[in-house]
Amino acid sequence: MSAVEGARNIVLGGLMGTGKTTIARRLAITLGRPWLDTDTRVEQDLGVSVAELFARDGEQAFREREATVVRDAAAAAGGVISLGGGVLLDPANVAQLRASGVIVLLTGDAAELARRAARRGLQHRPLLADVEPEQLSGRLAELAEQRRERYEAAADHVEDTTDGRSPEQVAAAIIAWAAERGDVLSSEERKRVAA
Ligand code: S3P
Predict the structure, then answer these.
(1) Per-residue burial over 76-103, b = 16 or more CB atoms within 10 Å of its CB, e = otherwise
(2) Contact status, residue 11 vs residue 83, Cβ threshold 8 Å
(3) Which of 13, 15, 141, 161 could make a disulfide contact with 110, Cβ separation 3.0–4.6 Å?
(4) Ligand 1 test: best mutation among 12, 15, 16, 161, most atoms within 8 Å of CB?
(5) What are 7-18's pLDDT values in tens digits?
C-alpha cells in the first residue's frame, strides 16, 4: 500500500456485518486512497480462504497471520484499512494501528447484523458457521458483549451502521469527523473533500 503523505490511516473495525468492507471501499474511492482489507490480504498471502485456514490450521494460525498483515499495513500511512472482526481484540494490533492511524469502530444492532451476515452466507464466517439461523442474532449480541470493552478502548471514533443511514452516508460522516480532527487527511484530500 503506497502512502498519501501527511495523512494517517483510517482503520475500520467492529463486528461481522457492520459494513467495514463496504464503507472502506467508499472511503478509499472518495479520498483517492489505497485500501487494504486484512482478511483479503491473509487469503492472498496464503492462497486459501479464511474459512479454509480456520478449518485446516485452526484459529490461532489465522490470528498469527492476521497480526503479520496488521503489522505490515500499519507500517505505511495514508491508506484505508478494513479489519477482520477479531483484530482489535489484541492490544499489540491496536498499538500498531494507532501509531500510524485512527481507529473507527463500526457498531450496529445485532438483529440487523445477523440479517446482513446471513444474506452474505455464513460459510465464509467460521465463527458463525455452525450457528442455527434463529440463534444468529443472539450469537452476535453475545460476541458484541464479550468484545465491547476492548473494541471501545481501541476506538478513536464510533459510528452506528444500523441507524438507517446508507454506507455512503456513514462514510461521509467519517470523512467529516476526520476533517475536523485535523491530522487524518492530507491537504490534497481536504481540498478534494471541500470541493
Ligand atoms: C472474525 C471476523 C471475520 C474474519 C474471521 C474472524 C472475528 O472478518 O476475520 O472469520 O473474529 O470477528 P469479518 O469481520 O470481516 O467478517
Answers:
(1) bbbbbbbbbbbbbebeebbebbbebbbb
(2) yes
(3) 141
(4) 16
(5) 999 999 999 999
Q: Exposed, middle or buried, 18 (CB in 10 Å: 0-12/13-18/19+)?
A: buried
**Ligand 1 centre and the CA of 91: distance in Å?**
17
CA-based nearest residue to 159, from 51, 35, 11:
11
pLDDT tens for residues 131-158?
A: 998 999 999 999 999 999 999 999 999 9
Please state the pTM of the whole predicted model: 0.95
Give the three-class secondary structure for 125.
coil
List, chain by chain if needed, residues with CB within 6 Å of any ligand 1 atom.
Answer: 16, 20, 39, 50, 84-86, 125-127
Residue 34 has pLDDT above 70, yes or no: yes
Least confident of 25-39, 120-134, 137-151, 165-179: 120-134
Q: What number does the ligand 1 atom closest to the CA of 126 have?
A: 10
Distance from C-alpha of 97 to C-alpha of 94, rounded to nearest angstrom:
5
pLDDT at 23: 98
